[in-house]
């Protein structure tokens, strides 16, 4: 693919474009179709393509936080706009991701579906809507007048002034769940107790919306929901959603992609048989794999592949004193897109502060030190011995045999201290920024001797 024509040529511009936000809209010009992800994305695309019109199916999508899942999902959403009404929903922006339940997701999903259909002048069946509305008013003890009165300007702008009462009510319930511990407990208990009714009414509305969508747009197969941000939920919430409540999540009658914490794949219970195997976005493999060597050499092709993420955004010769500095950044990132962007942005910022016109080697060292110190502040000292063992074994199997070991493995995955790769085999390796630490080097020396 040709490089964008308007790449950054100054350090301030490079700092701005090398951010960690997911690619969407005009920023999609920076998208790099990395080889390491093609198989995973391809399989999910095939699964969606094989669905019959109106068929429901749930898919899981995972990878390390910051690996580019949201950018990949946004790219997929663009690709499926002709065949589906695609609704990407940032769940972490809609609810409290640290305490989200399956009933919250039902409310958020149907609210977004109705609003999107109304934008296409498609209106859900009035009788179905009012039946759901009256039931919801009754079990939540809300009053129609109070709902209309309490709708904020922000909510009205989001839903539209012509939004039916049901969806104003849902917006109010979501706000109450997010804002009040007492309200949250009461509303969720009521919805869970009568979940069969909630599920039935939600699916009747989804079916009505899908049928009317296909009548108006015969080329579309239905509604595709992408519930992003769930990969950030804590361990207990992830287990509750994707293990304990897996059946409820799969009962929404439309294709859905859920992001899921990568740590869910490593728990002793795993995801069981609840879902089909998740689509995993691996790190870009910047190493030459050697099972017996704790210190791996770098693979030039992998390093160049991850470096393209920066090259698509900046003029390398204008921003860096020499091209080898970009190579060094790519190696330090471990093939992790967010760390690459953080390192690049940090190096650009410190170069500016020091009066440099281009990024120099000392600027990169400073930026890497800051991220390294961040790991040293948050990782328990006893974890470094485990990290050294992982460098030798390239797996987490020994940790998964005990409850304590499993918790350590989860912590290392969630903090990105350990990264997962896929080069014909599944393996893990400590983050290069962690390996810079004296604590790690001493632990590695103990393990090897």
How would you characterize the overall build of this protein?
By secondary structure, the protein is of the alpha/beta class. The protein folds into 2 domains: 35-281, no CATH class; 379-448. Helix content is 55%, strand content 8%. The protein has 22 helices and 7 strands. Strand 6 (418-422) and strand 7 (426-430) form a beta hairpin. The chain starts with 10 loop residues before the first helix and ends with a helix. The mean pLDDT is 89.
Q: Layout of SSEs?
A:
Elements: H1 11-17, H2 35-49, E1 58-63, H3 69-79, E2 84-90, H4 91-94, H5 102-119, H6 126-140, H7 144-150, H8 153-159, H9 165-179, H10 181-193, H11 195-216, E3 222-228, H12 235-244, H13 246-249, E4 256-260, E5 279-281, H14 300-311, H15 316-319, H16 323-333, H17 337-353, H18 361-378, H19 383-393, H20 403-414, E6 418-422, E7 426-430, H21 432-435, H22 438-448
Parallel strand pairs: 1-4, 1-5, 2-3, 3-4
Antiparallel strand pairs: 6-7
Helix pairs in contact: 1-17, 5-9, 5-11, 6-9, 6-11, 7-9, 9-10, 14-16, 14-17, 16-17, 17-18, 19-22
Biggest beta-sheet profile = 5 strands, parallel
Low-confidence region ranges: none
Rg for CA atoms? 24 Å
Q: Proportion of β residues? A: 5-15%
């Amino acid at each position: 693919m040709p490089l964008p024509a308007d790449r950054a040529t100054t350090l301030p511009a490079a700092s701005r474009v090398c951010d960690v936000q997911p690619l969407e809209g005009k920023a999609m010009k920076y998208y790099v179709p990395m080889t390491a992800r093609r198989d995973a994305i391809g399989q999910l695309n095939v699964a969606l393509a094989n669905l019959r019109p109106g068929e429901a199916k749930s898919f899981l999508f995972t990878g390390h936080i910051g690996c580019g899942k949201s950018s990949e999902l946004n790219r997929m959403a663009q690709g499926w706009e002709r065949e589906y009404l695609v609704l990407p929903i940032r769940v972490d922006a809609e609810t409290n991701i640290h305490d989200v339940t399956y009933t919250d997701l039902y409310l958020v999903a149907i609210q977004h579906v109705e609003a999107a259909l109304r934008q296409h002048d498609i209106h859900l069946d009035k009788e179905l809507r009012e039946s759901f509305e009256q039931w919801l008013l009754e079990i939540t003890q809300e009053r129609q007048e109070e709902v209309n009165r309490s709708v904020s300007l922000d909510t009205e702008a989001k839903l539209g002034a012509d939004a039916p009462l049901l969806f104003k009510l849902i917006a109010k319930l979501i706000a109450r769940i997010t804002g009040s511990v007492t309200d949250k407990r009461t509303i969720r208990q009521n919805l869970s107790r009568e979940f069969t009714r909630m599920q039935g009414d939600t699916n009747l509305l989804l079916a009505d919306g899908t049928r009317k969508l296909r009548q108006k747009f015969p080329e579309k197969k239905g509604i595709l929901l992408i519930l992003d941000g769930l990969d950030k939920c804590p361990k207990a919430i992830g287990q509750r959603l994707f293990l304990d409540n897996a059946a409820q999540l799969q009962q929404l009658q439309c294709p859905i992609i859920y992001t899921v914490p990568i740590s869910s794949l490593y728990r002793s219970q795993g995801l069981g048989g609840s879902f089909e195997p998740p689509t995993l976005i691996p790190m870009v493999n910047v190493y030459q794999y050697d099972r017996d060597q704790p210190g791996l050499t770098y693979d030039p092709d992998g390093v160049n592949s991850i470096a393209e993420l920066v090259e698509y955004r900046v003029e390398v010769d204008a921003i860096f004193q020499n091209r080898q500095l970009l190579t060094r950044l790519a190696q330090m990132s471990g093939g992790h897109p967010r760390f690459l962007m953080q390192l690049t942005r940090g190096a650009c910022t410190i170069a500016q502060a020091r009066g440099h016109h281009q990024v120099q080697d000392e600027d990169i060292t400073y930026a890497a030190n800051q991220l390294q110190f961040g790991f040293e502040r948050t990782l328990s000292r006893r974890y470094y011995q485990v990290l050294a063992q992982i460098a030798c074994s390239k797996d987490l199997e020994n940790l998964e045999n005990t409850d304590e070991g499993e918790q350590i493995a989860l912590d290392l995955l969630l903090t990105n201290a350990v990264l997962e790769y896929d080069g014909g085999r599944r393996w893990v390796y400590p983050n290069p920024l962690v390996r810079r630490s004296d604590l790690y080097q001493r632990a590695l020396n103990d393990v090897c001797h």
